[in-house]
Amino acid sequence: xxxxxxxxxxxxxxxxxxxxxxxxxxxxxxxxxxxxxxxxxxxxxxxxxxxxxxxxxxxxxxxxxxxxxxxxxxxxxxxxxxxxxxxxxxxxxxxxxxxxxxxxxxxxxxxxxxxxxxxxxxxxxxxxxxxxxxxxxxxxxxxxxxxxxxxxxxxxxxxxxxxxxxxxxxxxxxxxxxxxxxxxxxxxxxxxxxxxxxxxxxxxxxxxxxxxxxxxxxxxxxxxxxxxxxxxxxxxxxxxxxxxxxxxxxxxxxxxxxxxxxxxxxxxxxxxxxxxxxxxxxxxxxxxxxxxxxxxxxxxxxxxxxxxxxxxxxxxxxxxxxxxxxxxxxxxxxxxxxxxxxxxxxxx
Amino acid sequence: xxxxxxxxxxxxxxxxxxxxxxxxxxxxxxxxxxxxxxxxxxxxxxxxxxxxxxxxxxxxxxxxxxxxxxxxxxxxxxxxxxxxxxxxxxxxxxxxxxxxxxxxxxxxxxxxxxxxxxxxxxxxxxxxxxxxxxxxxxxxxxxxxxxxxxxxxxxxxxxxxxxxxxxxxxxxxxxxxxxxxxxxxxxxx
Lengths: 348, 189
Description:
The complex is a heterodimer.
Chain A: H1 2-15, E1 53-54, E2 67-73, E3 80-84, E4 87-89, E5 95-102, E6 105-116, E7 119-127, E8 134-136, E9 142-149, E10 152-156, H2 159-166, H3 202-207, E11 211-212, H4 228-240, H5 266-278, H6 305-311, H7 329-347
Parallel strand pairs in A: 3-11
Antiparallel strand pairs in A: 1-2, 2-5, 3-4, 5-6, 6-7, 7-8, 9-10
Chain B: H1 2-15, H2 27-40, H3 44-47, E1 50-53, E2 56-59, E3 87-88, E4 94-97, E5 100-103, H4 120-129, H5 145-149, H6 153-165
Antiparallel strand pairs in B: 1-2, 3-4, 4-5
Helix pairs in contact in B: 2-6
């Protein structure tokens, strides 16, 4: 497309990839201009409305070391409907907020709102300098709002970027699931947070009848079976990669089985690992024969696309492709050791 | 000059836009419209490899819109310095610049190596967001995705319909190559 080449080259070479610029995904007039008007806080304060319940997924999504706080509000008298352990239907009116802070300062708070039966609305609010309120970010996001590492800046995602992760097969709500809210929390989960008083878990939902499920469905606390390292590695990959890399993904080329169900059997875990080992990826390792790169090569993290891409922060290679500019060192250490361990297991 | 070019191109495209295509409209209309847009947009100039014809380099239509040929392994790009910030291969299917090395995609309906497994929605999302399949890695220069993405939904759907109508060509285009970071290759990161 020669006519556009010069324009594109100049614009992108000078500006870099930056935040994706897209058309608005939702009508802006359905969203309040201020975070304070979304129902997160009691009127005129920064005190969280007690109707909004705090929670903490056991496997947090890595966002360059951001400190996060999360709340959910279910409409009064309404319940989540769990048709099975992993399929949750949230009632119309459900709202979730996630606050991102770096160096002790709030930077953005994202809102996920089931405004109508037709779907979810995604928005982000950018905090002001005085930290007194946050303003609705434009649909195309806001680039480079704060430095998170030398030369690396956090960007507020576009609403199209929100859709890329939240509309990819399965629930639109990613961090609020049976596995993520299990009271049997993984002590070795990278960046796992201790439950604070008042935080709700799966048990809370059951005890307070906030979830409509078959009797006994959640009698056992969900837990990924296997040794401690496999549990943590698959939990991390499920939370950080599984929202796109799952068998129901809308992107056909990325249907790796990385989203873990609440109650996987040991055999399912084994099949998941086998599938990762058996698959080659469309992305090729540098200097390799095209089409020969394995997703996971037991004993060889540096030859495993999954590992090399999660370690990379270069635009063509990095995974996840959105929402992070700094590689997650703790996760790199964990996943590297897990892949090394798979090699030792094969040798036996 | 450049803004004027963008404006004029967009204006022409919009002036030729037809009313929204209804689901009942004959598919051939969408295919014809898509062919018109693909031709106007010069998609063949980069996505169809060039060959040397009697009048000089020309798109090799036997490999129409199949992207950079998988068998064509190129040497490293020349050093780029000063005002010369990017370079292109003679096939016009591979480009080097600050973004690394990019290869033009196979746009034919081949299921393994082209767009055969893409949905119409993914195609639209990719060109609106500038991301592979609308959610993956950035689409790299010199692909003018903002220019193409400025088309209406109906026009983008017509382009997709046309691309589904052309012969499938099995051609696995190489992965893009990242630029060196601080002089260190990716494997040493």
